[in-house]
Amino acid sequence: MPAKKPHANTPLADYIEKRVLELRPKQQSQIAEEAGFKNVNMLSMIKSGTSKLPLDRVAALAKALDCDSKLLFRLALEQQGNETTALAIAEIFGAIVTRNEAVWLNEIRDASGNSDPSMTTRSRAALRAIFGK
Amino acid sequence: MTAVIVVEGFTLPAEHPLTANEAAWIDALRSITGDQVQSPTLRMVQSVRKVLGDAGGP
């Protein structure tokens, strides 16, 4: 018998749950409507992991959730479990980097004088310290 | 040199492809932040500059 919530606790389901909470008092039904879901329960099903997010809904849902569409696309792609598609997209269009990640890249390039610094143990420790981890 | 063709409405994912080292930085950021990388604050930028500056330039 198939699992009732096969996509529960995937990074995408967790992320959507977090964004819905953060957007309160905006109603979940309003978000679902803005994302163009014909069935407003669809968002609830994606959030709980009963359904996965179709790739053609990523852009509209990202707008409704006021989040980075590239991040949502990457999480949705990961949820599809299709490594081949992910690899093909990365190969043809380049790595999917979110707006925030692009800002980090620019800072790293700038701070290092474009010397392409490697990720050393010391750099990783510094990043952990920056994020308090 | 390859001519750059600009098509309105399309943007490149980055100025140039990520190097292996840059991909490692992004992987580290994603891993540390639980895949939710926030835009760096001034304090974060200063810390990164210190680390990369101290690492010794050319």
| Count of discrete alpha- or pi-helical segments spanning 4 or more residues of chain A | 8
Q: Mean of residue pLDDT of chain A?
A: 89
Order of helices and strands of chain A: HHHHHHHH
Specify Rg of chain B, calculated over alpha carbons: 16 Å
Order of helices and strands of chain B: HH
Largest interface: A-B, 39 and 35 residues
Mean of residue pLDDT values of chain B: 75
Low-confidence spans of chain A: pLDDT under 50, at least 5 residues? none
**Radius of gyration of chain A over all CA atoms, rounded:** 18 Å
Low-pLDDT regions of chain B:
none
Shape of chain A: globular
Beta-strand content bin of chain B: under 5%
Account of the protein in words:
The complex is a heterodimer of chains A (133) and B (58). Helices cover 60% and strands 0% of the residues of chain A. Chain A has 133 residues and is mostly helical. The longest helix of chain A has 13 residues, at 99-111. Chain A has 8 helices and no strands. Chain A is globular, with a radius of gyration of 18 Å. Chain B has 2 helices and no strands. The two termini of chain B are 27 Å apart. Chain A binds chain B through residues 11, 15, 71, 75, 93-105, 107-109, 111-113, 115-120, 122-124, 126-131, 133, and chain B through 12-14, 17-19, 21-30, 32-33, 35-40, 44-45, 47-49, 51-53, 55, 57-58.
Task: Summarize the SSE layout with pairings.
The complex is a heterodimer of chains A (133) and B (58).
Chain A: H1 11-22, H2 28-34, H3 41-48, H4 58-64, H5 69-80, H6 83-93, H7 99-111, H8 121-130
Helix pairs in contact in A: 2-3, 4-5
Chain B: H1 20-33, H2 42-54
Please name the defining characteristics of this protein.
heterodimer, A: 133 residues, mainly alpha, 8 helices, 60% helix, B: 58 residues, globular
